[in-house]
User: Which sequence fits this backbone?
DNA sequence: TAGATTGTTAATCGATTAACAATC
DNA sequence: TAGATTGTTAATCGATTAACAATC
């Protein structure tokens, strides 16, 4: 890869994943601020202070969108909200299927908020005959045997996997075989997929480990140094 | 033995957060492998291949625990499981309270698996009179007004926050005031806490953004370069 | 033994943070 | 205007990856 040359397609930009994860936080905050109607503009310093993020970090992050601010004034709140919404693709809804109507699956079906994020769960699948045929939070539950056909027929690209460890890999294979291109995996195992399939792994065990290790460390080091701004990378 | 100077307290080591997040994955895999009883030993190469992680990364990660492997052979599977379990503190259970018995809160109360990870949710709180007094997945639901007293009386240090945006900050304040030291935050907003309080922020919107941006990019770049091993940092 | 694998030290890569000129 | 803030380029920091000697 040549260092100097301009990229062929300017649409393709490398965006750091941490940046992508912070953008929704800014968005949330901006909407709150907008409703308070105190000002039409906001600076990176204000956003950063509210979210315990360095202002320079906020500015860098906003830089990946095409947001333009005014020196001294900051960014137009309304404009920034619109730009982030657009950048994150929250304007064009994507359909998804959910596989596994257990506790967590049921909870996700009830997440009205997903629609704001451009995600629309249009059907759910399970193997349990008692669940099949029912409607949960407005979403109909089908037998898992119908997955393949329905994915193909509807051209669904996103699958949400909310099942236990044991069947996770098999169901992943079924989804991929049917034509699913991106899997949001809430099962406790890391599933294997072909190289062109995208998997986003949500692991509660990992998060809990980080939390409890931080807590343990805070206790053993308390009153030694002890400052925790919530941004620590190491524990 | 260190060349220059020994650290004052060898217990306090800086462990990268990514490493902490990967350790549970290794653990999951090791347990699966152990049940297959094919061998008593396993190498970093095997673990890495199974999880799409570079072997050298696995070795580095295992290095932070006190696991010792044998050249040519690898690590004892049983020993490694025990060491990770111990390192992550999954042997001594920590009690926690859950605040907000909505869809997600209910789902978390039903997560038997948490006990394996050393987390024991011993009570839940809500403001809804219909929920108060009921028992969900074996956990009793109290009125939020009792939180302060019960946290103090039981010496609870971990709070799980599963409420909507609006009341998240107020409830966080209440928890902190009562004596909670670590908050596992599933609300959609980043809550502000004093510097000595730990917050682990679980944000579905952020994860979804990463997933959908990867999907969008994969489509625009398909058949150009197109190799996705699931380990990409940038999208 | 030969060679796969560990453990450790060094190099690379990328995200964060700092510095600073431009600007309203 | 003066000074706060943006936008961009450079420096720093830390995690990942590579290199390689030690070893069973």
Assistant:
């Amino acid at each position: 890869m040549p260092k100097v040359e301009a990229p062929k397609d300017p649409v393709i930009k490398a965006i750091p994943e941490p940046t992508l994860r912070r953008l929704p936080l800014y968005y949330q905050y901006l909407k709150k601020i907008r409703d308070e109607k105190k000002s039409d503009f906001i600076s990176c310093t204000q956003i950063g202070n509210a979210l315990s993020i360095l202002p320079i970090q906020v500015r860098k992050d906003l830089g990946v969108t095409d947001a333009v601010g005014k020196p001294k004034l900051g960014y137009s709140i309304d404009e920034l909200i619109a730009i982030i919404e657009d950048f994150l693709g929250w304007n064009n809804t994507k359909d998804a299927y959910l596989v596994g109507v257990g506790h967590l699956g049921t909870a996700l079906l009830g997440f009205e908020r997903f629609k704001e994020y451009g995600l629309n769960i249009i059907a759910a699948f399970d193997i349990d005959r008692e669940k099949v045929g029912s409607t949960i939070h407005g979403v109909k539950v089908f037998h898992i045997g119908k997955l393949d056909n329905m994915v193909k027929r509807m051209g669904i690209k996103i699958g949400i996997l909310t099942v236990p460890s044991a069947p996770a890999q098999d169901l992943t294979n079924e989804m991929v075989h049917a034509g699913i291109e991106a899997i949001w995996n809430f099962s406790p195992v890391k599933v294997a997929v072909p190289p062109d399939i995208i998997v986003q792994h949500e692991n509660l065990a990992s998060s809990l480990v980080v939390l409890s290790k931080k807590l343990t460390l805070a206790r053993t080091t308390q009153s030694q140094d002890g400052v925790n701004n919530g941004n620590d990378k190491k524990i």
